[in-house]
Design brief:
Layout (H helix, E strand, L loop, with lengths): L1 H6 L10 E6 L2 E6 L5 E3 L4 E3 L11 E4 L5 E3 L32 H9 L4 H10 L9 H15 L2 E5 L3 H11 L9 H10 L7 E6 L4 H10 L4 E6 L7 H4 L5 H4 L2 E5 L3 H6 L7 H31 L6 H40 L6 E5 L4 H8 L8 E6 L2 H14 L2 E8 L5 E2 L6 E2 L9 E7 L17 H11 L1
Parallel strand pairs: 8-9, 8-11, 9-10, 11-12
Antiparallel strand pairs: 1-2, 1-7, 3-4, 5-6, 5-7, 12-16, 13-16, 14-15
Helix pairs in contact: 3-4, 5-6, 13-14
Length: about 475
């Protein structure tokens, strides 16, 4: 039994795990913390009792916001209706078919009846349910379940689940990147374990997390970021182990030109010298009033408050030094991260480039392509095709790339049920556009116009014999 427990421990919910709550088509990512109230779909719940349960378990929300694992459904479930009509033409929706009123339903809730029991009461008190067709009955039950069943499912985060969550709740944060388009980006970018991938994205870290998940903690990822620091909220929702973060490096996009030109300073020696000089000046300024105070104490009368003032100044000075130390430690850590990223980029031998940004991609692409090794893929996502068309033209003019293609995808969901398989009425209008291609090595030593490339001697001889 212990061995089985160890084998499925990774599939069980633990304290501190990042999970995704699901109810219907609504998702929400969060972390398991004991005693913490969580609001989901306008309802407060506690996740304490989910610890130790398997992922993908559905829980009933009971009184007090606690979660209990849902019991297996009985054979005589309300969805298994025995009586059904042949058609719905004689059914009139006049609002009088249901005998239970709103107050009656609230009374049933107060009595502690669960969602399934309330649905059964609605079925028993409906005068038209038995006359509906089997399909109409299933549709009725599904609608009532959505309204009265109080359940939540705990899922393990994955690329697909988080992409669906962001696209359903906050599509603007991920530039309206749909999960099927994200899957194509990972495929076209040839992301796999052991590769070195450059990622530039403004999709809340979703693309970065998807790349890291696909690599499985093997290889290296360099995140190019704009602004003051990288955004990784989406990546952190995956809940990766610690060794995954060891493969992640960060590099500010504003330093790309300096790195390509060889003028980027990663040691910070100049800034350190300036800081040391300023510290010396501060010490002189601090020592000067102390000396003056000492002189005053010798010449003039003693001040009883002098000792208190000196202690207060010492405390302030100590706090100031500690603050400077923390600032210096933070700056040193930032320099170390920058140096580690530079070490990954200096060889210009990256295996792939993935860009998904709200910024215009042309200037970014032309700079980052120089870090790729020859015969390596790149893929660029944009919500608008006009930006990618301009980027396509620049790539063709500049050279160094082949198989450059601009594509878009079309996704449509289908309901697949016996005798009623059909596309759903609502669907996504568009999943954005992808520009992909492969880098090649360019030969800069091209022959001039006056030089003529001679044919091999054997070929010239053959042509001469044929003409004769």
């Amino acid at each position: 039994m212990a061995d089985n427990g160890d084998e499925d421990s990774e599939y069980r919910i633990k304290v501190g795990d990042c999970v995704v709550l699901k109810r219907g088509d609504i998702f929400k990512a969060m972390q398991i913390q004991l005693g913490k109230k969580v609001i989901f779909e306008k309802q407060w719940i506690f996740l304490d009792k989910t610890v130790g349960q398997l992922y993908s378990t559905t829980f009933d929300i009971v009184s007090g916001g606690n979660l209990l694992p849902q019991k297996p459904k009985n054979a005589d479930d309300a969805s298994d209706a025995k009586e059904a009509g042949t058609d719905n033409r004689n059914i009139v929706d006049d609002g009088k078919s249901q005998k239970l009123t709103r107050d009656d339903i609230e009374t049933l809730k107060e009595q502690g009846l669960k969602g399934q029991e309330i649905i059964q009461q609605l079925i028993d008190n409906s005068s038209t349910f038995r006359d509906k067709t089997e399909y109409a009955q299933d549709k009725y039950i599904k609608k009532k379940k959505k309204k009265y069943e109080n359940t939540v499912t705990i899922l393990k985060p994955s690329c697909r689940i988080l992409a669906m969550m962001y696209h359903g709740r906050e599509p603007g944060k991920i530039c309206h990147l749909r999960y099927d388009t994200l899957a194509q980006m990972l495929t076209l970018g040839n992301v796999h374990a052991g590769s070195k991938v450059l990622v530039f994205e403004t999709c809340a870290g979703l693309v970065l997390g998807s790349v890291m998940e696909r690599m499985g903690g093997h290889g290296s990822v360099v995140q190019m970021y704009p602004g003051g620091g990288p955004v990784r909220a989406g990546m952190e929702s995956f809940g990766f182990p610690a060794h995954f973060h060891d493969t992640l490096h960060e590099f500010p996009i504003c330093h790309v030109n300096a790195l390509l030109a060889g003028t980027l300073d990663t040691t910070g020696k100049h800034s350190s010298a300036v800081e040391k000089q300023s510290d010396k000046d501060k010490e002189k300024e601090q020592n000067q009033p102390e000396a003056e105070q000492a002189g005053e104490q010798q010449d003039g009368p003693e001040d009883p408050n002098m000792e208190t003032v000196t202690a207060e100044e010492a405390r302030v000075e100590k706090e100031k030094k500690e603050k400077e130390k923390r600032k210096e430690a933070k700056a040193q850590e930032k320099r170390m991260k920058l140096a580690a990223a530079v070490a990954q980029l200096e060889g210009r031998n990256a295996d792939g480039l993935i860009i998904a940004s709200r910024f215009h991609p042309s200037s970014v692409v032309m700079g980052l392509l120089k870090f790729l090794a020859p015969s390596r893929p790149f893929v660029i996502y944009s919500q608008y095709k006009e930006a990618l068309i301009e980027c396509f033209t620049k790539l063709k003019e500049h050279g160094g790339t082949v198989n450059v293609r601009l594509t878009d995808t079309w996704l449509r969901h289908y309901q697949v049920l016996p005798n009623r398989t059909h596309p759903l009425l609502l669907m996504s209008g568009g999943g954005g556009y992808l520009l992909s291609g492969t880098t090649v090595a360019t030969d800069t030593a091209k022959p001039s116009g006056s030089q003529r490339v001679e044919e091999p001697a054997a070929k010239r001889q053959k042509l001469t014999d044929t003409e004769g």
